[in-house]
Amino acid sequence: MTAEAPTAPALSYGRLVPVTVHFDDLDALGLLHNARYPLMVERAWTELWQEHGFRFEGDWVAAGDACNAVKELRIGYEAPVTKPGTYAVHLWLERLGNTGLTYGFRFCSADGSVTYAHGTRVLVRLDAGTLRPAPWSEGFRAAGRGLLRPAD
C-alpha cells in the first residue's frame, strides 16, 4: 500500500498564483528578504490581471485600469521562507469600490496549506491626465467581482 500525498486545501475564494523564490531573493541569513514578499505579490497580481486583458505597456493613457497607485500596504510575517523553490500567492479582493479597491493576499506554500505572510493593499484608479481618482471600467469591475471574498 502506498501513502497518498495530502490534498491541498480547497480555496473558497480568490486565486492561487505560483511564484518562484530564487537563491538571490534570500538575505544574508538565508531567509526570503522582507522586501521580496510585496514584490512577488505584485508580480502575481500583474500576471492575474494580464490574464483578464489589463496591462501596462508604457502608455498611461492606454493603460486604463492599469493606471493606478498604491495608497496603503500592510503586511504581517508569520513564518520564514528558508529556501528557494516554488511557492504561491493567494489573491483576492476584500473591497471593490468606485475608484479604489482593497485586495488581500497570502504568501504561501505551493499548495496553499502553509502561510508565510499575509496582508492587504489599497489601490486607487487614476486618471492618466490629472492623476486624480477615476472610476474602474465595467470590464475591470466584472473581472474583480469574481475575486471578491465572500462576507463572513
- Round the mean pLDDT to the nearest integer and report it: 93
Percentage of helical residues?
Answer: 10-25%
The radius of gyration is 17 Å
Q: What fraction strand?
A: 25-35%
Order of helices and strands: EHHEEEEH
Q: How many β-strand runs? A: 5
Strand order of the largest sheet: 1-3-4-5-2
Overall SS class: alpha+beta
Helix count equals 3
Oligomer: single chain
What's the overall geometry? globular
- Biggest β-sheet, characterized? 5 strands, antiparallel
Question: Your description of this structure?
Answer:
The protein has 152 residues and is of the alpha+beta class. 18% of the residues lie in helices and 33% in strands. The protein is built from 3 helices and 5 strands; from the N terminus they run βααββββα. The protein has a 5-stranded antiparallel β-sheet with strand order 1-3-4-5-2. A hairpin with a 3-residue loop joins strand 3 and strand 4. It starts with 14 loop residues before the first strand and ends in a 7-residue tail after the last helix.
